[in-house]
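Tokens as discussed.
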């Protein structure tokens, strides 16, 4: 089951930087993420066995960003019911449901008629991957994004929301 799950990601400078929406009641790390989105166009692809689900970092990553540590933490042990990443933006509308039993995580995509055409081919049956691969790929991806935020705004490392997010990822890594 080697490389049954992988997340590929890339970004490049926008030819013309976008507008960064001013946010109230958002954490600094989330505000920095949105600043990042105003400068770069970007994409990430979730490879699950032979299936590739292609997402835009904006808005798709922003819809799950704050949930990633919570969901991954739930997947460090066996689950009683599925946990979900809900990519709910217009043109996406895809649920990624995951259940863990032992060292396997079973992934199932929830597609509706409102889901984007590029997602209609994804199966709604369970696809097993190893838990180490799944959690490891998500941790690598999110840490890379956090490192990019630090490159843009080095003082974010002193922010409580950034430190808390990073600590939560470290705890997940040590308990996967």
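Sequence:
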């Amino acid at each position: 089951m080697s490389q049954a799950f992988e997340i590929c990601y890339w970004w490049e400078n926008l030819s013309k930087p976008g507008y960064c929406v001013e946010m109230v009641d958002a954490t600094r790390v989330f505000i920095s993420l949105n600043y990042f989105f105003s400068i770069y166009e970007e994409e990430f692809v979730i490879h699950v066995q032979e299936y590739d689900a292609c997402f835009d970092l904006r808005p798709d990553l922003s819809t799950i960003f704050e949930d990633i540590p919570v969901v991954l933490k739930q997947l460090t042990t066996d689950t009683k019911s599925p946990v979900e990443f809900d990519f709910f933006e217009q043109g996406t509308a895809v649920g990624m449901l995951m259940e863990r039993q032992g060292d396997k995580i079973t992934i199932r995509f929830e597609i509706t008629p409102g889901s984007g055409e590029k997602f209609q081919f994804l199966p709604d049956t369970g696809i097993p991957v190893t838990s180490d691969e799944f959690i490891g790929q998500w941790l690598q991806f999110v840490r890379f994004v956090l490192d990019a935020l630090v490159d843009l705004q080095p003082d974010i490392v002193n922010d409580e929301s950034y430190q808390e997010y990073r600590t939560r990822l470290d705890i997940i890594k040590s308990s996967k």
